[in-house]
Design brief:
Largest sheet: 7 strands, mixed
CATH topology of the largest domain: Rossmann fold
GO molecular function, one term: phosphoglycolate phosphatase activity
Structural class: alpha/beta
Catalytic activity: 2-phosphoglycolate + H2O = glycolate + phosphate
Pfam families: HAD_2
CATH superfamily of the largest domain: HAD superfamily/HAD-like
Shape: elongated
Pathway: Organic acid metabolism; glycolate biosynthesis; glycolate from 2-phosphoglycolate: step 1/1
Bound molecules: 2-phosphoglycolic acid, magnesium ion
Family: Belongs to the HAD-like hydrolase superfamily. CbbY/CbbZ/Gph/YieH family.
Number of strands: 9
Strand content: 15-25%
Amino acid sequence: MTRGVVFDLDGTLIDSLPDIAAAANALLADHGLDPLPQKQIGSFVGMGERVFLDRLIAATALDAADYDALMVEFITHYKASTGLTTVFPRVLEVIQALKAEGYKLGICTNKPGGPLAAVLEAIDLAKWFDVIIAGDTLPVRKPDPAPLRLAFERMEATQGVYVGDSDVDAETAQRAGVAFAFFTEGIRTKPIEEIPHDRAFERFEDLPSICREILRPL
Ligand SMILES: O=C(O)COP(=O)(O)O
Ligand SMILES: [Mg+2]
């Protein structure tokens, strides 16, 4: 029996919204536009870079006709914006505790591969994980369950939990048939009670016991 815990990244393991906001505001500045507040930019996060850019364009005077060039510019800023990102408190201890308990560990994020590699390198996080699935690893992304299923398959897990911070993560877990542990302190735009979950937590030190309780056969 192999037990696996897969984590979302942005707003779950890492507090990356300051860097995502910095990248978006650098793009706006390039086009002579005023910055947006970080909270508003947080409401664009969760479904990958295309939805993010669509929402940014809709909220500003960026010109949708330049979509492809804007995406290239945004990704360039996004890859360079890693200095403000921190790992949430106690994440590293908990990851090591779960590993010591014999869990396989994975990441399943909608962040695209380029910015993902850049931030993982900056905070030296990749070394703890058996599998890392980016937003562009497959042609489909969360809330499609395929990326999450792939993470558990690659770990050869027979029991699993997904840990995330958003309604997109909750839907992904539900569609993959995996238990969902909901970190409530991330980039959340909906009330906790509107996001279906098996267990919610606000402190990472509570996660190991939650995982033991809610593991679901895959
Ligand atoms: O890049 C996004 O839109 C969100 O990333 P996440 O899936 O790690 O929260
Ligand atoms: Mg997230």
